[in-house]
From TrEMBL:
Keyword Oxidoreductase among UniProt keywords: yes
Protein name as it appears in the record: Dehydrogenase/reductase (SDR family) member 13b.1
Gene3D superfamilies in the record: NAD(P)-binding Rossmann-like Domain
Domain of life (superkingdom): Eukaryota
A GO MF term: oxidoreductase activity
Alphabetic keyword roster: Oxidoreductase
Similarity comment text for this entry: Belongs to the short-chain dehydrogenases/reductases (SDR) family.
Species, as recorded: Takifugu rubripes (Japanese pufferfish)
InterPro entries: NAD(P)-bd_dom_sf, SDR_fam
Length: 304
């Protein structure tokens, strides 16, 4: 079982999915937070897990932690910077050359900060959406070969506050340019709406294959996502998260549900929260917007 979470890939003999002889999950974004907890859980089940992380130092530290806590030696670190399309392509090339299976791709990585990627994209648009979009595209044939397989996109309830400004994307390759705290949150929400729309369109394009896909809200999590925000905001957030937010083990449960639960194939393209399928606002399942975002993403990745 191979899983990708933009930080973790895995091969797994999964007792939950008994119909498979081998499962390999890959997880980008698995060196901290819910990605790391997802990797540990999958590794405990017998998966070969590939941790796909930007920082070699943090990735290798996570590798040691996941091996120790899961008791598994079938965990591998592979470097992946979702803010670099060159890195995404290099990762996919290496993965496809060295790993024979990919049963589960978990797109878990995310940033909460303004700036530009190596390719000149807005940071949150480039990392949270475009990097995952290209990675999924490059690994899709392998997922089809190993079907039944799944793509799990970790989004957020914040997508409800998002909109897609296609004029801004076309002109500036960013969801927004502002740097005030309220605007940064709005741009983050926009990027999470991209995750949900991407899943919606991906499901349509995967009809007739044995690959299904799901987006999800993991819950409000005590994690390192806000590490790039101001110290004032972090000072305000930390006490609140300690009492009201989920820990990372709890926060990984909906990801694991979408990855492992039997019988949810008819729900492909849907959005989950607390391990339950949820209805979306019309803007999050807009066929025209999803198709337009897909085509724009293809152009930005050099696929069209």
């Amino acid at each position: 079982f191979n899983t990708s979470c933009c930080s973790v890939y895995t091969k797994l003999l999964d007792p939950v999915r008994k119909s498979r002889n081998s499962v390999c999950p890959s997880l980008p974004g698995s060196n901290t937070g819910i990605g790391k907890m997802t990797a540990i859980d999958l590794a405990r089940r017998g998966a070969r897990v590939i941790l796909a992380c930007r920082s070699r130092e943090r990735g290798e530290a996570a590798l040691a932690d996941v091996k120790r806590e899961s008791g598994s030696s079938q965990v591998v670190f592979m470097q992946l910077d979702l803010g670099s399309l060159k890195s995404v392509r290099s990762f996919a090339e290496t993965f496809l050359r060295t790993e024979p299976r990919l049963d589960l791709l978990i797109n878990n990585a995310g940033v909460y900060m303004q700036g530009r990627t190596e390719d000149g994209l807005g940071m949150m648009f480039g990392v949270n959406h475009v990097g995952h979009f290209l990675l999924t595209h490059l690994l899709l044939d392998r997922l089809k070969q190993c079907g039944p397989s799944r793509v799990v996109n970790v989004a957020s309830l914040a997508h409800n506050f998002g909109t897609i400004d296609f004029d801004c994307l076309t002109k500036h390759k960013a969801l927004g340019l502002e740097t005030s705290s309220t605007r940064v949150f709005k741009i983050y929400s926009d990027s999470k709406l991209c995750n949900v729309l991407f899943t919606h369109e991906l499901a349509k394009r995967l009809e007739g294959t044995k690959v299904t896909c799901y987006s999800l809200h993991p819950g409000a999590i005590r994690s390192e996502l806000a590490r790039n925000t101001s110290w004032v905001l972090q000072l305000l957030i930390v006490p609140m998260t300690a009492f009201f937010f989920k820990n990372t083990v709890q926060g990984a449960q909906t990801t694991l549900h979408c990855a492992l639960q039997e019988g949810i194939e008819p729900l492909t393209g849907r959005y989950f929260s607390n391990c339950t399928v949820r209805e979306l606002y019309p803007k999050a399942k807009d066929d025209a917007a999803a198709k337009k975002l897909w085509e724009l993403s293809e152009r930005l990745c050099g696929l069209a």
